[in-house]
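Reminder: ligand-aware prediction takes two inputs, not one.
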Amino acid sequence: MQSIRGLDQIPVTGLKRVGPKLAERLRKLRIETVADLLFHLPSRYQDRSRLRPLHELRDGDEALVEGVVEASQIAVGRRRSLKVWLREGRDGLGGGLMLRFFHFSRAQIEAMGRRGTRLRCFGEVRQGPQSLEMVHPEVQYRTDDLRTGTAVDQPLTPIYPSTEGMQQITWRALTDQALALLAAHPRSLADLVPVEITTPLRLPALDEALRTVHRPPVETPVQQLVERSHPACLRLAFDEMLAHQLALRRLRQERRHLSADPMLGDDRLRGRLLAGLPFQLTAAQRRVVDEIAADLGRPRPMMRLLQGDVGSGKTVVAALAALQAVECGRQVALMAPTELLAEQHRKSLDGWLAPLGIEVAWLSGRHKGAERAQVLARLADGGAPVVVGTHALFQQDVRFAEPPGGLGLAIIDEQHRFGVHQRMALREKGAGAGRLPHQLIMTATPIPRSLAMAVYADLDLSVIDELPPGRTPITTVAVPDSRRDEVIERVRSACASGRQAYWVCTLVEESEALQAQAAEDAAADLRERLGGLRIGLVHGRVKAAEREPVMAAFAAGELDLLVATTVIEVGVDVPNASLMIIENPERLGLAQLHQLRGRVGRGQVESYCVLLFHAPLSANARERLDILRRETSGFAIADADLRMRGAGEVLGTRQAGMASFRLADPLRDKDLVRSAQQGSDLLLEDGSVEGAGRVAGLIRRWLGDREDYGRV
Ligand code: ADP
Ligand code: MG
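Here is what comes back for the chain with magnesium ion:
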């Protein structure tokens, strides 16, 4: 056998079919070598291994089905389409399914239009206007008897994460070539994990695992692959987790060499704030306040993640941290992802700090010209000790004072909405002479500690795991929108008895314009139906200058009902609002629904959240709404969310600049996390050149240039 270079040395351009255009597409996916291709793993498989009865199909399923044509029709609507009704049995009993084609030939019309023709189809099941449908399924005509031969040639088809313009067939052609090279030259891909680590874990060799995952043999248990519990999946997940652990530890080591100014403070301002608060801090708040205070007093930059459920009182914790910096003559920047949220923070901080003689400056995208210049000048000369703002704080012309003053603490709220680069930009603003500002990152997305340790690079974690006393739990009900009228009446009577309510409109599309339109329509409709109530409207298209008076009026009780898009998800705090209607909640994820619902239940009166859903619900949506009805704790909901969706998606990791996983799921694979931690200890203890090479190689293989994810 001829020996070849390592597969990580062979550029993809050496493969058949790979021209400059394809190479460029691959490069964007960070696939440059044949080895990179092998680590581009299928995200799922199409299961053609068994026929699914029509009556058990659900919205969203991808399935192989068979049935008999009962009728067909060419529909002329907005788009001409061919509709074909399939029935389960010959006798026309059992379930049915509609096939829909927008492009079709005369031959297809003839073949499929004939009553009694048996068709085998593979495709995705969607809920159509009248029934379940498959749009443009792959179709095979069956002539043999139903009871004979259901064998299929390729039972598990890998589906690769792709990019525009790249077909699955191309991915298969490319990975075929890569796998062929690997088979012909087994040593061309180094297994960087020593067998002393993999053997006790009963994990297969790397090349075997790759072959199985890319081309599952016929006898592979489908379920194991889908659930990723197959040993081949576990082996790759283990390597990935190990690479993450190694990168994490390297980051921690590096952080020991960074320095920051210790800000001990003298309690003068903090003491006054605490004395003036109308409430006592909860035990959990006191604990995290102490953790943060200790960090700020050290000569290393704090990098702390503050987790606390909606309404757990993170803002006052942030205010105390800010005052500690101000006591030391340093500046503080608090950054929020939306203008609405930033406004809310500014108000809270202003309410607490103004009595102490500390002015809270405010910088958002809408400050222009002289107003902006004035804020910038006060930041630069240290005249403004505390500034609250949005992305505007990242901009280049924003400067803080010179040492010994300057930015000492950056507080970032709802961190997963900011990219890693933006956070770094803010950090750079406080950097000088090798010193960095301290950072506090606040999030209401609760993440189990084990997962947090595995994914948040080198952040330390503080958790507020208790709500302030005196909150009444929210009762959540799910009501189909066929009962919309009743719900509207409920709003009327709640408002009549002096309560306030939110009406939240949601849309699938991320389009702000469509969202805005939906909210305007709903507001118009509600105004008509609820004559006599004072109704306000806020959405992303309403300018902040117009939004603010509406919000203020609602907060002051001058409006009964606030119709809004999900812009109110974070930050709004109106204790008298005790009823929330969420239209089409099935369109939102659990975490977002929980955040939204957190806008009510902030006062003494009993609060209600009505999930006004549109039937029929997919199984998944039904489960989400069920969880929301049952659970009120953000932690329980986050747990359920993780179970349903997997870690990568919940954390929205990629843009967050946190760890994201291709295959591993630190929540599901808890044992693997532990093994990977032990494995990384072993690898790092090995001080040899070879050992160091393995570490670097694993990190490069799995993380590539994303390795800097943790450097927030
Ligand atoms: P979140 O953690 O969601 O940001 P906030 O900081 O907005 O929560 O706090 C929610 C509300 O609870 C605010 O009105 C705040 O003043 C109040 N609050 C905070 N801590 C306490 C406490 N220990 N006791 C009573 N109310 C509190
Ligand atoms: Mg908050």
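The longest helix spans residues 231-255. The chain has four domains: 12-45+157-227, 50-142, 268-464, 474-631. We will return to this case in the review session.
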